[in-house]
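Inverse folding, one chain.
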């Protein structure tokens, strides 16, 4: 019982979702309001229905909808899809306010539907390996985490850099630590479009004393996507640009009351060469399949079983 999906949005990122769901044999319909997007969908997923009106996707018989549209439309489209009884995969951010995000979560829970937010790095084999290192105690007690996500462009006019870039890092840090912070402070600067921050620095403080900071910018002279975890025993660095996870046998010892840095080389840790987005799409299909099986057992049981 493989669920089928309709994808709304075939632009900068949506075309990757179209490609993956098509390759997985689950794609039945693609909607994009632009001619360019529809042409991309037809080329990427030959044989699939391509339309311009989102209502077609929302009212189609497919049980699941994937939303990859501009951030300000996520809330309204996700709500309408849930109202239509669909399982929903929506790209980050889920919504642009806490209140709207809470509404969608409650809406899905009441209706018994799947609501999944696209945090693709949570499915990255390198990040999964890093989670194993942290959980196993290989790094010791986590003391500090920092993340840089920097580049020149793509500069957005719908949401700021915090909403566009930082959700990746926030999701990973929360997953690594297994808890939420009690204090969050973010500051940034606006240099290109009025009231749209181009650079932000976010500081997170957790109950166990761990701190994390996230530096994101689309006004940077070079591309960097790096997450560093500082532990009491070892340190680890995940470089998503270079596709490397390195563990450093480095820490600080005390000698007669004097802190002494212990410096050793780094060891590269291998991980599976899998596409994170494909893994994420598979996870959604698996959840939607479970949901579909439950619906069938609940509402389409044979008369003798009722």
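Residues assigned per position:
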């Amino acid at each position: 019982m493989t669920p089928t999906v309709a994808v709304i949005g075939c632009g900068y990122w949506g075309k990757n979702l179209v490609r993956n769901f098509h390759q997985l044999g689950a794609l039945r319909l693609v909607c994009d309001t632009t001619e360019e997007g529809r042409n991309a969908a037809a080329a990427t997923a030959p044989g699939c229905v391509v339309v311009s009106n989102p209502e077609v996707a929302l009212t189609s018989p497919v049980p699941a909808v994937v939303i990859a549209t501009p951030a300000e439309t996520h809330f309204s489209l996700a709500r309408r899809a849930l109202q239509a009884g669909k399982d929903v995969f929506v790209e980050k951010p889920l919504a642009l306010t806490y209140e709207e995000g809470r509404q969608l979560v409650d809406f899905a829970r009441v209706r018994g539907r799947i609501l999944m937010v696209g945090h693709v790095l949570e499915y990255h084999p390198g990040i999964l390996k890093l989670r194993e290192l942290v959980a196993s105690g290989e790094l010791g007690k986590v003391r500090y985490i920092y993340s840089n996500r920097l580049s020149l462009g793509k500069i957005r006019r719908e949401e700021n850099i915090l909403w566009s870039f930082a959700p990746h890092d926030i999701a990973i840090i929360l997953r690594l630590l297994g808890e939420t912070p009690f204090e969050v402070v973010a500051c940034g600067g606006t240099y290109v479009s009025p009231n749209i921050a181009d650079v932000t620095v976010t500081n997170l403080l957790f109950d166990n004393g761990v701190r994390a900071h996230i530096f994101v910018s689309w006004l940077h002279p070079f591309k960097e996507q790096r997450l560093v975890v500082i532990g009491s025993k070892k340190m680890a660095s995940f470089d998503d640009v270079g596709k490397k996870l390195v563990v450093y046998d480095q820490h600080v010892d005390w000698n007669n009351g004097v802190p002494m840095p212990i410096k050793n080389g780094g060891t590269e840790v291998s991980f599976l060469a899998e596409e994170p987005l494909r893994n994420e799409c598979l996870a959604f299909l698996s959840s939607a399949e479970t949901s579909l099986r439950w619906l069938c057992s609940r509402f389409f049981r044979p008369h003798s079983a009722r």
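The chain has two domains: 5-118+276-305, 122-269. The first strand starts at residue 5 and ends at 8.
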